[in-house]
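User: Fold this; tokens only.

Assistant: Input:
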Amino acid sequence: MSRSESLHFELHPLAQPMSADERRRRLQNPGFGRVFSEHQVTIRYVVGRGWHDARLEPYAPLQLWPSASSLHYGQAIFEGFKAYRQQDDGIATFRPDANAARFNRSAIRLAMPELPAEWFVQAADLLIAQDRRWVPAAPDESLYIRPLMIATESALGVRPSSEYLFMVFASPAGSYFPQGMKPVTVWISADYVRASPGGTGAAKCAGNYAASLLAQQQAQSHGCDQVVWLDAIERRRVEELGGMNIFFVYRRGADVTLVTPELSGTLLAGITRDSLLTLARDRGYAVEERVVTLDDWERDLQSGHMTEVFACGTAAAITPVGTAKSDRGTWTISQGQTGPIAAEFRRALLDIQYGRAPDRYGWMHRVCDAPDALDATDSAPAHAARP
């Protein structure tokens, strides 16, 4: 099926949406991943037929055979991005085209079919427009969008499935730091690795996250919030922090350099990471994508050359690191406080996402405009997504 062909979405919304009072109750302190909006979008794929049966429908459980191949052989990928309420009460998402591109890179790595990027974005737009009343209006809150694809063929045998389900659902997300940005404590794991050369480290697949859980438990047993991953071969090169990319800030007088591990095939190419590199260059900061070892981290902290460490990702935008623990000892970073560069980038990124600052980069994708007086009532239908 060519990318120029259109895909028709059937719309089957709830006949009786949730009451405004109940929705407001659920939107109070939603946390992350605990509350879900009222609809989902699904598209099916069959080898020889391609993508078909696209529909918006009520959020509901899936039906799978016990023999569905994703349950046995792990063909399961996902993405994550957010919809933000803008200053004029419209709704926009942040760089969904980049998520679509990464989704397809993950699909290729797991021998799954690619989904045209315009259909990926259109599916998300349809869901957001239908459930736009679930986009929180409180400061720093958003609607988290979760696209995924799983293999659904009922068959045992180690081979790519012939059938797949793509779907998108949404979850209101509270502020990641409701009491103000708080630096985290991290555990540098020498026992476990996230990814190895030639593996699936650059893919956003379910198995990568399952394999991380034991290391995360180890980090928590040491009183830490997150685990820092090292390379699989020498266990000396810093790669990622939990499910986030990591940055090191170097200062010499007024000169600032941002250093982040290079994308070598074992790291996930974070969209927030890429955005921060652009913001840094535009601010006149030097940017380096290179190897950072544990020796570098310890030595440069002790010399005072390294002044901050922070992680970045969709959920938190920016997460400063205040303390790092390992078998080598404990290191304190930026006196355990949020550094000025981390705070600057968090503010700059959120201001673009929420429409408080001009979007000079074309990153924001407008999904729907502010409702008019009639459409603002709960009985009115949602705006259609933009094509």
